[in-house]
Amino acid sequence: MVSEEPATASPLFLLDRTVVTPHLGASTKEAQDKAGVAVAEMVRLALRGEFVPYAVNVSAGGEVVEVVRPFLPLSEKLGALLTGLAAAPIHSFDAGYYGSLAEHDTRVLTLAALKGLLTGVVHEPVSFVNAPMIARERGLAVSETRSRETTDYVNLLVFRAETEAGAVTVAGTLVGRTSGERLVRVFDFDVDMAPARYMAFFTYEDRPGVIGSVGTLLGGAGINIASMEVGRTAAGGLALMGLTVDSPIPPDILSGIERGVGTETARFLELPD
Fold it and tell me: pTM of the full predicted structure?
């Protein structure tokens, strides 16, 4: 031990197999440059409202593994879908992760889902940091379900919300080389559609003419349908129509479709970009 730094007369200097460094041996110019770049990247993520790895006040792990990271935007959109589809305030939320995704830390995906679920129903901005606190303040019970087993998809997210008006379920996954987002379940109906900024969902009695009527009513209002997906439990039973459109559907047009077609459920949603 030496009483003063830097040491200039230590007997360690006389040893051939000794490497001597300053007190902070890792504090090189290259290390400082790398630290500066990392800090700038973290600030950029925070300003964009994205997840910031290693933030001390985020209730999730540090670096997000590459298997999990691509699912962050989808999780937030599925959370927003739940809120938009629910007919009453949500009092419990379960985030289910199935397939190989279940082998990893998925807490950050649940944070993203809460961010999407709560944004738009509270006055303050919702972030990865304050989402759990806001959920607790609203009495929202949050849980996770994970299972390695899945039948149709390599990885599957199944989000379920309980409300006084009943349960709402949505599910999604990523497909293809580009990890394209797919919505694969709404309520109890299987679908296959890419989420979009503007979406509408209708449930109705399956019968001829409904699809044409909806298209006519939207066309008359100058609203272009970008895509349409229909799911049903059985011919003549309850059916679901999912639409992506190029512009918002005004409340009066939505009400007109509800009356004209006789829908049981009519919802228009605007998802986060």
Answer: 0.78
Evaluate whether 97 touches 159 at the Cβ level (below 8 Å): no
| 241 CB-side CA count, 13 A | 28
Instruction: Give the neighbor-by-neighbor strand order of the sheet with 265-270.
Output: 225-232, 238-245, 198-205, 265-270
> Which tokens hold the place of 273?
């970009």
- C-alpha–C-alpha distance, residues 71 and 165, integer Å: 29
Tell me the mean pLDDT in the region 221-232.
Answer: 95
Q: Can you give the pLDDT at residue 16?
A: 84
Report which of 209, 200, 269, 196 is spatially closest to residue 240, judged by C-alpha positions.
200
Give dist(CA 167, CA 191) in Å, integer: 18
Structural domains present in the chain = 66-193 (3.30.1330.90), 196-273 (3.30.70.260)
Task: Work out the burial of residue 225: count CB atoms within 10 Å of its CB; fewer than 13 is exposed, 13-18 middle, 19 or more buried.
Answer: middle
Please check whether residue 244 is in contact with residue 199, taking contact to mean a CB–CB distance below 8 angstroms: yes
Is 58's pLDDT higher than 90? Answer: no
Residue 30 CA to its chain's centroid (Å): 36
Band the pLDDT of 2: cuts 50, 70, 90.
low
Q: Could you give the CA distance from residue 12 to residue 62 in angstroms, rounded to a whole number?
A: 39
Q: How far from 125 is each of 116, 119, 121, 122, 129, CA to CA, in Å? A: 11, 7, 10, 8, 11
Spatial separation of the C-alpha atoms in residues 99 and 102, rounded to whole Å: 6
Is it the case that residue 251 has pLDDT exceeding 80? yes
Q: Is 258 helix (H, G, I), strand (E, B) or coil?
A: helix
